[in-house]
Amino acid sequence: MKRLRPERWTGQLLAARPGAPPASAGALRPRCVASRPRQLCLSARRQQQQPAWENDNDSFDVLQDGTDHARYPPLERLPASVAGYPSPLPERALKSAKLAALHARLSLPAKIPLQTMARTLVDASADENPQFNNANLAFVGHSLITYHVAEWLMCRYPRLPMNILYSAVYAYAGDEALHQVARSWGVESAAAPGGEVDPGLLQFSLDKPVTSIIKFGYKRVEAAYLEKFKWRRGISSRVVFDDDFGGVVDKTPGVEHEEPEEHEEREDDGMDDAEEGLSPSYTSYGTDETRKLAEKVHANFARATVGAVYAHCGRETAKAFINAHIMSRTLDLSKLFAFKQPTRELALLCAREDFDHPVARLLSETGRMSRTPVFVVGIYSGMDKLGEGAGPSLDMARFKAAMNALKAWYLYSPGDNVRVPSDMLAQDAKPWEPAHIDMGEIISR
Amino acid sequence: MTVKALQTLTTGRNGVGAFILQCKKMDIHYCDWAGSSKGMNGFIKSILPKFAAANPQIEFVVSPRPSKHPVVIGHYINGREKAICVRNLEPLQILKKVELLRDASGEKLRKVNKPVQSVNESVRGVWSPYHGNGMAV
């Protein structure tokens, strides 16, 4: 059984009370009074200790609690006014160990000041003032990321159908992917935003989500009917009206979240699950909606970081940063295709390209009369084999062969190291050789 | 509409593109009374400033833990943490432990049998019984 130490209990209680006599003046080990480790460096622990500095500003003499303050210096004292700000003051960024570590971890150039890094960590839901939150930087970052990803995909896979291209851009630059990127940078989030929070923590509020505009696109006139009547949005209209991922531009800011979320995401501490009125999707990590919001906030932080790199270091560094952190991720594009009528599409392709009409031929088979037959079918156009597929029935094998043939067509690539238009912006770039441009989709929609 | 797009996610591999050091924070606890912390106190005085300057990616938090053995705790990006008790160790031995924590990935230790682990599919492809000339039995 663990030995109880009553003298330490009183020490704990008295240390927190202002004006009290020294807790362990006659104790054997006066240095052991400090019940909680006094942290020499800045850390997140301080964020919930608002009364501490308020007391400090009053008549509370910190030297009275019996602690040797030369040896254990008190925590950083903040002026009482910081509690009035929605986000930490910019000058505090210079003192944050977390922020400096994050800056170094991302190998950011020294040109990017810590104050800007601190600003990328303040979401619009924490501080609505656009001069102090990351909405503007995120807008720049989002535009840069989607531009570089889209131009690279278009040059590298010139025959991708438009909706596959949209899906691929989303896989690289969408909220989920950038959320993963931000997580992999090791950024932690504050329990609640406020002026006293360590500037190195991601600050956002799930109680009053704010839809900050970080995407470009037009609001459709018929937006209200799209959901109601399940209207179809053609690809061409998506190119013109919708956002970079072909999705409908969000409704008017503020209308989207009419009911503020009741439950905020708390990642670090235990939850009181006994709250009333929980939605069925509620877990200890919040509801689906709060998780979606937190995902968006993390993604906006990643975008804002790119925006900050661009603002301070310019185009080339921002491009290198996007290359290193976002475009270096892997995506199997052949997994994005879901064909409905592959044989029809392949026949139309062959007609368009003046190939011979595609013919399916059985290449090999086994166990036709068994429970698990396998047929291997090849699709031929004249003497050229376009694709091959195996399946448990002749039809399935034929469809698979057609799908493989179509994927081989759509995923044509001029090479891994294609030049993209933004390469021309570099100084003394070689003259531009026109990229391969496909004539378009086989069956237009 | 004959081609429908499915939604997937890209997967990142640390070190492909950019490398992020996985240890993000190190808690260093000492006691300035107990003898087991003697080496740790020397480490904090002489070695830690240089080590921290050489590793700016890591946030170092030094705090006393009176009448307890000295401990170094590494916090990792994947959310795990590793703690090493460094009682009665010399400063240079503690440096070894701290370097171990810095270089760890934060994953659980597991046995690695294969020299190469890859998410990329094999270049050669999987052997198929339905292709080639077959085998005479």
From TrEMBL, chain A:
One of its GO terms (molecular function) is double-stranded RNA binding. One of its GO terms (biological process) is RNA processing. Its main location: mitochondrion. One of its GO terms (cellular component) is mitochondrion. Residues 258-276 have a biased composition (Acidic residues). Residues 1-30, 250-286 are annotated as: Disordered. Keywords: Mitochondrion, Ribonucleoprotein, Ribosomal protein, RNA-binding. Residues 99-187 form the RNase III domain. It is found in: Mitochondrion. The keyword Ribonucleoprotein applies. Residues 11-30 have a biased composition (Low complexity). SMART domains: RIBOc (SM00535). InterPro entries: Ribosomal_mL44_DSRM_fung, Ribosomal_mL44_DSRM_metazoa, RNase_III_dom, RNase_III_sf. Belongs to the ribonuclease III family. Mitochondrion-specific ribosomal protein mL44 subfamily. This is Large ribosomal subunit protein mL44.
Automatic annotation (TrEMBL), chain B:
Its main location: mitochondrion. InterPro entries: Ribosomal_mL43, Ribosomal_mL43/mS25/NADH_DH, Thioredoxin-like_sf. Pfam families: L51_S25_CI-B8. It comes from the Eukaryota. SUPFAM superfamilies: Thioredoxin-like. One of its GO terms (cellular component) is mitochondrial large ribosomal subunit. Residues 32-105 form the Ribosomal protein/NADH dehydrogenase domain. Keywords: Mitochondrion, Ribonucleoprotein, Ribosomal protein. It is found in: Mitochondrion. GO terms for biological process: mitochondrial translation. GO terms for molecular function: structural constituent of ribosome. Belongs to the mitochondrion-specific ribosomal protein mL43 family. This is Large ribosomal subunit protein mL43.
